[in-house]
């Protein structure tokens, strides 16, 4: 027994010594890193002599001795220390400003871009918005030196747009922010860059939260995790995406088992554990007092109740940046409130408010205003730079062309004279053009008035007609006149010479509805946004719509049912337009041929469709459906 015990004692003693030695080496490395970040290079050098030889020690030696460390080595050093919660990021940022200078060379340095992008992101997350925006401008200036046709450059230019996206998010400018995210996401898909796609899916989920689209938020986060499976290593957004999913499932409720698995994954990663405490608070705020899961969480942290857990985790989260610390405090407040500790909950809510005030060192609105001004000035500065370059070039040319100055002056005089003459002619032409525009408007106005006179005459004539068929024909003629008059009224009111057909159809259906309102109640839906046509297209198209709608009112609608009418105009991919008019009436007979009809109205529709170089198709599907493809004036001219 003694013979066996002695080797075992030796083994465990040796193992313990080796473990202690490893721990001592890690502590030594941590100490050297802190000395470097504190700019205490003599102390760092002293302890480097005691450190074991490996590749990381060589990086530390290069940095300490101010030797030419590569940007990749700087990135490794910054990434390793950026994950350490006990190191304030401002120290790392100061280190970058002191050591990492902008590289020279004709090719973009991706490691340098990654260092600066990380620095901007962390400063922004820590509330240093002005400094982050200033560094963003410098990074953009560097990246814009290179050609976007280079795939790596295009990827980088897309990636660094995240700062502007977050600024939109802070401002709650959902429209512009989401638009930019989707543009960047499409670029990432075109480049087939999975990691870039994951990044912009993460930011897209932030905007979906603001829009209150919970299921889309969950779907986007799940899509992101599916993409993670295709990567050889987890992206920097992996755990952040998991945290998004946890928030969503906790809010949705009924997913405690999945939430627990996800939180455990964050907790079990030592570098991310500190972030899991906020997630536990979120979960506790949704659990009942007697929930087995709540009791399991209390047992996990060896506490008796929620206040003890909050107090314990409050200390453990001291190294979180202000934004993440706010998230923990806010979650703790809600968890305390849920479980009935109201006084303590309000105290933590006050702490959350106080923490929010400390997030930004200067007034947030001023920072945002400054950033917007910078964005506007960038364009102006570029224009000024170009103008200066042009001025310099012109000066050189003028110096070299001194001998030809006299000839140039003679030519310029002649050109100036011609220019003055041309200017006078232009004035005359512009005056004439304005007169013609006024004349055209007056013509449309008079045409409209003439149509209204004709319509009024027809109105008077109908009063003396007793024959129902003749009266119907007269009313149809009057409606056609009104349809054309409405076109000219819109032209008279619009300086562009185009008719907004969405507005036109609404007015036309209103006119027809009032005419038939005594007989039928019709629910009308119109889809024709941004459809603008000139008079050559508008008049035949207006008459077509008038005829088909009139046909629906006459034959499709009854008082004993709900009557529906839908009208839509959309532009197809082949530059043609598609008009669909559908009612829910009995439809036309199965043997009906729209091209051989004897109906005056439908014969008129056939002719007008041909005039628009179009095709007409009529079907019965829960009512009569007219589908017309047609071309606008420009396309018809090209065909001709």
Automatic annotation (TrEMBL):
It is an enzyme of class 2 (transferase). Keywords: ATP-binding, Kinase, Nucleotide-binding, Phosphoprotein, Signal, Transferase. InterPro entries: HATPase_C_sf (IPR036890), HATPase_dom (IPR003594), His_kinase_dom (IPR005467), Sig_transdc_His_kin_sub2_dim/P (IPR011495). Coiled coil: none annotated. Residues 442-634 form the Histidine kinase domain. Its EC number is 2.7.13.3. Pfam families: HATPase_c, HisKA_2. The keyword Transferase applies. The keyword Hydrolase does not apply. Residues 1-18 form the signal peptide. It catalyses: ATP + protein L-histidine = ADP + protein N-phospho-L-histidine. It comes from the Bacteria. GO terms for molecular function: ATP binding; protein histidine kinase activity. This is histidine kinase. It comes from Polaribacter marinus. The lineage of its organism: Bacteria, Pseudomonadati, Bacteroidota, Flavobacteriia, Flavobacteriales.
């Amino acid at each position: 027994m003694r013979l066996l015990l002695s080797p075992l004692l030796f083994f465990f003693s040796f193992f313990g010594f080796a473990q202690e030695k490893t721990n001592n080496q890690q502590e030594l490395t941590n100490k050297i890193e802190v000395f470097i970040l504190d700019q205490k290079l003599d102390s760092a050098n002293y302890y480097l002599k005691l450190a074991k030889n490996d590749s990381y020690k060589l990086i530390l030696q290069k940095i300490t001795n101010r030797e030419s460390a590569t940007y990749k080595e700087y990135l490794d050093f910054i990434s390793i220390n950026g994950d350490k919660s006990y190191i304030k990021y401002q120290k790392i940022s100061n280190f970058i400003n002191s050591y990492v200078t902008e590289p020279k060379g004709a090719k973009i340095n991706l490691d340098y871009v990654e260092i600066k992008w990380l620095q901007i992101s962390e400063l922004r997350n820590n509330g240093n918005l002005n400094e982050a925006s200033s560094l963003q401008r410098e990074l953009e200036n560097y990246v814009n030196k290179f050609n976007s046709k280079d795939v790596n450059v295009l990827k980088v230019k897309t990636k660094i747009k995240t700062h502007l996206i977050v600024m939109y998010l802070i401002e709650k400018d959902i429209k512009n922010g989401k638009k930019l995210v989707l543009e960047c996401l499409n670029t990432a898909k075109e480049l087939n860059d999975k990691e870039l796609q994951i990044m912009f899916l993460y930011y897209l989920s932030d905007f979906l939260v603001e829009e209150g689209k919970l299921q889309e938020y969950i779907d986007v986060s799940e899509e992101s995790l599916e993409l993670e499976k295709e990567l050889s290593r987890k992206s920097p957004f992996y755990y952040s995406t998991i945290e998004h999913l946890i928030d969503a499932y906790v809010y949705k409720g009924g997913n405690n088992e999945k939430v627990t698995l996800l939180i455990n994954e964050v907790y079990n990663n030592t570098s991310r554990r500190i972030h899991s405490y906020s997630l536990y608070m979120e979960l506790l705020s949704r659990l009942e007092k007697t929930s087995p899961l709540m009791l399991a969480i209390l047992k996990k942290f060896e506490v008796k109740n929620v206040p003890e857990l909050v107090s314990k985790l409050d200390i453990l989260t001291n190294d979180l940046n202000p934004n993440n610390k706010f998230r923990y405090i806010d979650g703790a407040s809600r968890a305390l409130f849920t479980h009935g500790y109201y006084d303590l909950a309000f105290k933590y809510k006050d702490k959350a408010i106080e923490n929010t005030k400390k997030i930004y060192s200067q007034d947030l609105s001023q920072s945002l205003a400054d950033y917007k001004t910078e964005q506007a000035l960038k364009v102006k500065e570029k224009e000024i730079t170009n103008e200066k370059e042009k001025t310099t070039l012109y000066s050189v040319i003028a110096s070299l062309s001194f001998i030809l100055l006299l000839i140039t002056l003679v030519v310029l005089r002649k050109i100036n004279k011609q220019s003055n003459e041309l200017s006078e002619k232009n004035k005359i032409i512009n005056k004439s053009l304005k007169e013609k525009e006024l004349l055209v408007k007056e013509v449309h106005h008079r045409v409209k008035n003439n149509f209204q006179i004709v319509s009024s005459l027809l109105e008077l004539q109908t009063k003396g007609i007793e024959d129902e068929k003749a009266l119907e024909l007269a009313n149809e003629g009057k409606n056609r006149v009104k349809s054309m008059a409405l076109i000219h009224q819109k032209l008279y009111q619009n300086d562009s010479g185009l008719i907004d057909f969405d507005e036109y159809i609404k007015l036309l259906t209103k006119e027809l509805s009032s005419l038939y309102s005594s007989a039928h109640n019709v629910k009308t839906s119109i889809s024709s946004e941004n459809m603008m046509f000139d008079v050559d297209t508008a008049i035949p198209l207006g008459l077509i719509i008038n005829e088909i709608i009139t046909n629906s009112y006459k034959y499709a609608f009854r008082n004993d049912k709900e009557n529906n009418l839908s009208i839509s105009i959309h532009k197809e991919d082949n530059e043609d337009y598609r008009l669909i008019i559908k009612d829910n009436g009995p439809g036309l007979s199965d043997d009906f041929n729209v091209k051989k009809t004897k109906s005056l109205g439908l014969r008129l529709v056939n002719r007008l469709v041909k005039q628009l170089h179009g095709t007409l198709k009529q079907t019965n599907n829960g009512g009569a459906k007219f589908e017309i493809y047609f071309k606008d004036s420009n396309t018809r001219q090209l065909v001709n």
